[in-house]
Write a structure and sequence with these properties.
Elements (H helix, E strand, L loop, with lengths): L4 E4 L10 H9 L2 E4 L3 E5 L2 H4 L11 E4 L2 H13 L9 E4 L2 H6 L10 E4 L4 H10 L5 E6 L5 H8 L4 E11 L12 E4 L2 H10 L9 E5 L1 H9 L6 E3 L7 H13 L2
Parallel strand pairs: 1-2, 1-9, 4-5, 4-7, 5-6, 7-8, 9-10, 10-11
Antiparallel strand pairs: 3-8
Helix pairs in contact: 1-9, 7-8
């Protein structure tokens, strides 16, 4: 089938020269963006019920920029001063660099990984006797606690934000050739909003193993899987798929 339209289940990139813009221009396809899920902060009043105090920790693990946003929001809401002695362990350089929005980057103890939590494990193990806090969503990939516990890392999960399903009723009569998903929650949002959804000829692209599992568990067909040895990004995979579909 010839691809004419794509719906990406994320907010639209706020840069003019995004890879999606280049993809749309190259293949003359319509690409729309619509978040299927929304992240909202858990109020300090609710956070207190877990009886976790930020003041009891001096080392923190961040897996995303969203986690950083809500950690410092919670510190402000709970009136916890940011200590110059705090250590920040981040799963990637991009996440670590984002810390400069809240703390003087060069003056802080910041330890970036190479893209995954597994990369941080050797650094975490060097912090002998340390107890880490990890700010998370209400939904957590089970691989994370499994990895930390297997590595004998002492840590506490702090739920500071939550994922909620967006209202997609305005899309009920809109059809796309490809739907693009990046999380299991996106698939759940699709089926919650459209319980009678039938895939038919609609193609589904999914990023990551947990998204793939959610697609398959709900008896949907995964047509474009990312990442692979050949394609590390969604736009690369879409570009190749669209190009091949033109020649069929």
């Amino acid at each position: 089938m010839k691809v004419k339209s794509i719906l990406v289940s994320q907010p639209e990139p706020q840069v003019a020269n995004s890879p999606y813009s280049a993809l749309a221009d190259k293949h003359k396809v319509k690409i729309d963006f619509q978040p299927f899920i929304e992240v909202i902060g858990i109020p300090g009043k609710e956070f207190r019920k877990d009886k976790i105090s930020v003041r009891d920790f001096k080392s923190f693990i961040f897996t995303s920029r969203i986690a950083i946003d809500h950690f410092f929001r919670m510190c402000k809401e709970m009136r916890v001063p940011v200590s110059p002695e705090w250590k920040y362990f981040c799963t990637s350089e991009a996440v670590a660099f984002y810390l400069q929005k809240f703390v003087p980057y060069r003056k802080r103890k910041i330890y970036p990984g190479k893209g995954s939590l597994a990369d941080l494990i050797p650094m975490l193990k060097k912090q002998r006797g340390e107890h880490f806090m990890m700010p998370t969503s209400d939904i957590l990939n089970p691989d994370i606690p499994n990895l930390l516990e297997k590595s004998n890392i002492e840590w506490t999960r702090a739920k500071m934000y939550q994922t909620v399903i967006c209202d997609l009723s305005h899309l009920s009569d809109v059809k796309y050739d490809i739907l693009v998903f990046f999380s299991p929650e996106g698939i759940r949002s699709l089926l919650r909003n459209f319980p009678k959804f039938e895939q038919g000829e609609t193609l589904i692209a999914g990023f990551g193993n947990t998204t793939k599992a959610a697609i398959e568990e709900n008896d949907l067909r995964l047509d474009i899987a990312v990442p692979t040895a050949k394609f590390t990004s969604m736009t690369q995979a879409l570009d190749s798929f669209i190009e091949k579909s033109k020649n069929k």
